[in-house]
Write the structure tokens for this entry.
Amino acid sequence: MPPSSPSEGRSSGRLVDDLGRRRFLFVTGKGGVGKTTFSAALAAALAREGKRVLVALPNTKERLSAILGSKPIGDEIVPVAEGVWAVNISPEKALTEYGEMVLKVRSVAHAVFDNRYTKTFFRAVPGLYEWAMLGKAWFHTTELGPDGRPRFDVVLLDAPATGHGLDMMRVPKVILDVVPPGVLRRDAEEAWAMFRDPARSGIVVVTLPEEMPTQETIELVEAIKKDLTLPVLRLVVNAVLPQLFSPEERERLSRESGLLSIDAPERTNGTPESALVAGARRAVREKVQAESLERIEKEIDLPRILLPHLFDEASTVEGTRVLSKLL
């Protein structure tokens, strides 16, 4: 029975203890499944445990500031909550910063990386911008503060959606395959070694209990494990509805075609039958959800956590607070 509060399967210990031991976490999944919402909640939960967390966004139309109630997040690292910082990584700026570290002279780096001709060339190099963003996020795991401690305990990358996310994760491996020895290869080797080490890094996959997200998630997890051989730590099933109907009731209501027709809500508006229409639609959603959860259980061998559907608080500061406490 799907819970109204989070539950876990095939796992032991608290989620924040398990994930908080890692230095770098990827959060990925199909677009629209709540990756950013989960990233915000996880960052807040880890911060509550005393961790200093950086949430890195890869040049995205960011929603994190609205979810956390902070000012808009740009390409500079800014505090967004107690113990949480964030940055929306610009690939061009990240590439320039990388050039400064390699060339050691700021003016020379800007002369090279801010030139419109070299920018055109860089944009044409496959995977270079992806590495600039991923490499910057990884670099922040190596930074030390004035006290000699890591500047951030956990770097959390709110990775791109499925296909693009896979491409970004694959970039360090591609660099190792094709780039000769040098600074770029050295950094890619260090990053790839971390990403493959389940004690230091791992991937959290977020999905919804719906047909298309479930299918895409099954394919995503298989690709990560087989093609990239990277550690997948958890599966998060987001927005799980509390169960109102028994399996028998769901079957019966989902067969009532008259209640499910496109004109049924308008036709029954203001009548007692409108409750049956609403119930039939909810029963169909519950049926799809139950089938999706059953398939996830059968085909994805991962510890998982089910998070409840937030009706009025989804993607809000209060909703983030609710989810972070549940985590």
Q: What stands out?
A: Strands lie at 7-9, 24-29, 53-57, 78-81, 84-88, 154-158, 201-207, 232-240, 304-308. The first strand starts at residue 7 and ends at 9. The two ends are 20 Å apart (CA to CA). The chain is about 50% helix and 15% strand.
